[in-house]
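FAQ
Q: What does a multi-component entry look like?
A: The components come first, one per line:
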Amino acid sequence: EAAVTQSPRNKVAVTGGKVTLSCNQTNNHNNMYWYRQDTGHGLRLIHYSYGAGSTEKGDIPDGYKASRPSQENFSLILELATPSQTSVYFCASGEPGQGNSDYTFGSGTRLLVI
Amino acid sequence: QEKVQQSPESLIVPEGAMVSLNCSFSDSASQSIWWYQQHPGKGPKALISIFSNGNKKEGRLTVYLNRASLHVSLHIKDSQPSDSAVYLCAESSNTNKVVFGTGTRLQVLP
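Then the predicted structure of the entire assembly, as tokens:
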């Protein structure tokens, strides 16, 4: 079954440390997305990718980098983590510009920056 | 920037009730409007979508779309405790981006 898998499931990081969140999809979708979800803000787009080697800035990219080394894998990198980046992060894959296509989401990574 | 607004913020109903969730979106030319369901500790899961004006029925779910008024609604018939979740409305444009609302939290009491 096609799926999006995120790791780790939970992460505690120290302020100023580097954090890498990983995402793998078996949907063969070209597009992949990283969102964060906070109470009162809903899902906010951080970075997205159209395919291997491509990364694009979303609506709230500051403090985050992304890497798409292959069709299947998309990583979110926090070079210098801050407490304001404490959140739940979701990865998704999809092709919203092509017909009636939905997103498939992973189960999320809960990040606590102390 | 596109904006998707949902109402109510939260809703508590008894088992068996009809549930109505509302969503306003920003672009009458949007490709599709999607509804997602999110249970605690899980990622959102696509439930139903609609593209054309009018309604679409799938099982206990019915969606109504009015592009002229930029409004879409989701109705859940005979609600069950397992329907308790956050429901997200999402506007899909032709720009490869989807904009999500902040959600409606539904609790169905047994």
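Q: Is there any commentary attached?
A: Sometimes. For this entry: Chain B touches chain A through 26 residues (CB under 8 Å).
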